[in-house]
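Example 9 (inverse folding). The structure is encoded as follows.
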């Protein structure tokens, strides 16, 4: 009863005479001679049956353990001085132009997508670093019956809506002993890095995939993957061997890599009946890719590798073993040049140091990937430092200092945050943060000054006032009370100091008193956040939220208490927020973010600082608040009112404008776009405040693994106001 699906497929494969032993191609290999229309119709009908069966095969395997043998050969065919930047992006060893290595991994798979690779041995003329190890193993984490691959980076031709994306043709009918195998070609209907082309080999009657041969783009590489699946009853859904070719072309550098992999399965467990439905009801996914490679033994024993190889080395591969390359063998590599390269590397590279349970990460003093640009702030540059120390049961201390400079506003921003995650299973963390915020002045101060100047010849704008400098300290604690429901409590202290710069105009004593007064706020706050049916995964003892099909609802209440540490703020603040990411199909989603807040019972001068309505000074990643903030709104509006309502919508898809462009007339442009543009986004944001009844921003953006750029247009009461760009690097965020 435990292996119901397994027994069913034993009967199926027995009925169609698939032998459990190794079988070879027969002599019959007939090209399909039908007309083009007939080939398409036959190809479509076969793929409909294959796609229908794929939904049953997708989660058939519950667990497996396998020994995976991998050999890799990487050649640097073309390089220039920009290789020092390219290695940030590409998994390449710059010290060795002709790198050959072998690895043996004991790998475990737990459905739906938990891959753990434990590297047992390595050998070669250079030892692959962690990036090369990940590259060698990442392409093997492929469930051919899933609609997408590699974290939704690619749409496979087996997806339910594949006929909207691909055209299929029956090319050949192959005979394997007494069984018929169809060779189906698939081509994308439009250029996109999300789509691939190639061939599927499908068994007749059972509609099991025997082999896939596909070509596509992934992470700035052109790749060709050939993967053969098992021919025995026990392994017919699992890969048997794989050959991968990668060509990277970036910044004038060209790198080619070839991998060969072979699988030997130790244990395979089949899914119980209705397990797919049970898994959907269960919220614990724990679906992550993990590479264990802290201490990999370097084994030079020839007998060991002959035992684990599925085929002998080729002559050229054996030659690379005999003549290991060293950094000093590279032509023109002098001592001074090496010293210069090492110096520039230390200045421009991100630094990662790991020692036992301590990890240190530094962004690099002159790292170009810390640059950003926005229309409101101009060029920004940020420095980041991270240190973390892990204790028993995954308790962790983290320190996060940051400093950045906004060139257009000539302002330095700093932040120092420390977290003590004392109960990782319940997401319990105590945090302390100090820093400075946007310089501003309160709407209440503006009102008071205008009141003082109502009988004067001066106006508020005539004073050319400097903003108040803002410093803050905050301590807060957050903990999960039950799955998806978190309670946050905290105390913040804000100090606002006028710049003390005197105006050339003397507006009067009362105004001078307002402008020279310090304002301090002592504000306790309590908040809750709830996401129904929150899916999560456990990384050891640490709980990480993944996604939910329901919105996240947050509410926060804060109270300004006067008289504590010279605080004068006396008010109540309440805010609410709701946001959600709705998946609309393969790699298409709609994000919305709606929030509102109000200051009540104001009994003092205060600064209208809201939690969910703030200005961001530094562009972060493509998945940050680039779709949840206003990008062109002037800073003074954020503190201009005691109430607000905002709404942000973002639609993301790999096919928006590029889908409607003519393929024939724009073929060259579309090919370039398919290589470098991975996704497109539309933005729509709207704001209401009493002082600004209608402000709207619309935008369009494109992005990939390295950078993201968007253009925004702002409208005040639906009248054009401004136009601006936003640019951010995706790496190292």
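The amino acid assigned to each position is listed next.
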């Amino acid at each position: 009863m435990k292996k119901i699906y397994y027994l069913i497929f034993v009967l199926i494969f027995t009925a169609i005479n698939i032998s459990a032993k190794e079988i070879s191609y027969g002599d019959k290999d007939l090209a399909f001679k039908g007309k083009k229309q007939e080939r398409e119709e036959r190809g479509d009908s076969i793929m409909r049956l294959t796609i229908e069966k794929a939904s049953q095969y997708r989660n058939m395997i519950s667990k497996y353990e396998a020994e995976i043998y991998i050999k890799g050969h990487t050649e640097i065919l073309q390089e220039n001085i920009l290789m020092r930047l390219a290695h940030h992006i590409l998994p390449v060893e710059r010290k060795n132009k002709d790198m050959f290595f072998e690895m043996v991994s004991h790998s475990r798979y737990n459905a739906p997508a938990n891959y753990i690779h434990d590297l047992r041995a390595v050998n070669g003329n250079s030892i692959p670093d962690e990036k090369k190890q990940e590259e060698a193993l990442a392409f093997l984490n492929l469930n051919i019956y899933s609609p997408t691959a590699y974290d939704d980076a690619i749409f496979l031709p087996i997806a339910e809506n594949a006929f909207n994306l691909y055209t299929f043709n029956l090319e050949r009918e192959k005979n394997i002993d007494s069984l018929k195998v169809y060779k189906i070609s698939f081509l994308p209907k439009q250029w996109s890095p999300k789509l691939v082309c190639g061939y599927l080999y499908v068994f007749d009657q059972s509609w099991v995939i025997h082999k896939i041969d596909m070509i596509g783009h992934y992470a700035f590489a052109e790749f060709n993957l050939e993967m053969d699946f098992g021919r025995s009853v026990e392994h017919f859904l699992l890969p048997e061997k794989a050959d991968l070719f990668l060509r990277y072309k970036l910044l004038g550098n060209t790198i080619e890599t070839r991998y060969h992999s072979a699988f030997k399965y130790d244990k395979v467990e089949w899914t119980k009946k209705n397990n797919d439905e049970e898994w959907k009801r269960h919220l614990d996914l724990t679906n992550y890719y993990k590479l264990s490679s802290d201490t990999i033994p370097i084994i030079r024993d020839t007998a060991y590798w002959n035992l684990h190889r599925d085929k002998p080395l080729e002559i050229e591969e054996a030659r690379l073993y005999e003549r290991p390359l060293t950094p000093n063998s590279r032509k023109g590599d002098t001592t001074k040049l090496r010293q210069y390269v090492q110096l520039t590397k230390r200045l421009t590279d991100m630094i990662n140091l790991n020692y036992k349970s301590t990890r240190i990460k530094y962004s690099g003093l002159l790292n170009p990937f810390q640059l950003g640009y926005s229309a409101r702030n101009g060029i920004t540059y940020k420095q980041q430092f991270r240190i973390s120390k892990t204790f028993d049961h995954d308790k962790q201390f983290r320190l996060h200092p940051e400093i950045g400079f906004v060139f257009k506003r000539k302002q330095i921003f700093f932040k120092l945050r420390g977290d003590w995650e004392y109960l990782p299973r319940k997401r319990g963390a105590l945090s302390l943060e100090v820093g400075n915020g946007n310089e501003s002045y309160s709407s209440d101060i503006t009102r008071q000054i205008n009141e003082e100047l109502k009988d004067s010849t001066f106006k508020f704008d005539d004073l050319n006032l400097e903003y108040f400098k803002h410093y803050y300290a905050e301590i807060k604690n957050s903990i999960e009370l039950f799955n998806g429901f978190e309670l946050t409590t905290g105390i913040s202290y804000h100090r606002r100091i006028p710049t003390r710069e005197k105006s050339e105009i003397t507006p009067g004593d009362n105004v001078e008193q307002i402008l020279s007064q310090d304002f301090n706020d002592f504000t306790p706050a309590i908040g809750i956040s709830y996401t129904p049916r929150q899916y999560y995964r456990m990384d050891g003892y640490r709980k990480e939220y993944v996604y939910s099909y329901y919105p996240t609802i947050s509410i926060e209440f804060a109270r300004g208490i006067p008289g504590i540490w010279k605080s004068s703020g006396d008010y109540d603040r309440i805010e609410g927020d709701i946001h959600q990411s709705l998946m609309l199909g393969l790699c298409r989603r709609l994000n919305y973010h709606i929030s509102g807040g109000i200051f009540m019972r104001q009994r003092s001068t205060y600064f209208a600082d809201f939690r969910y309505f703030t200005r961001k000074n530094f562009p972060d990643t493509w998945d940050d608040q680039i779709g949840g903030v206003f990008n062109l709104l002037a800073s003074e509006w954020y503190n201009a009112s005691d109430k607000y309502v905002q709404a942000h919508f973002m639609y993301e898809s790999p096919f928006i404008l590029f889908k409607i462009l003519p393929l024939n007339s724009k073929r060259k442009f579309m090919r370039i776009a398919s290589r470098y543009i991975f996704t497109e986004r539309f933005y729509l944001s709207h704001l209401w405040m009493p002082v600004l009844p209608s402000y709207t921003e619309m935008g369009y953006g494109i992005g990939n693994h390295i950078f993201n750029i968007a253009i925004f247009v702002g409208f005040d009461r639906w009248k054009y106001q401004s136009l601006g760009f936003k640019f951010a690097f995706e790496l190292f965020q």
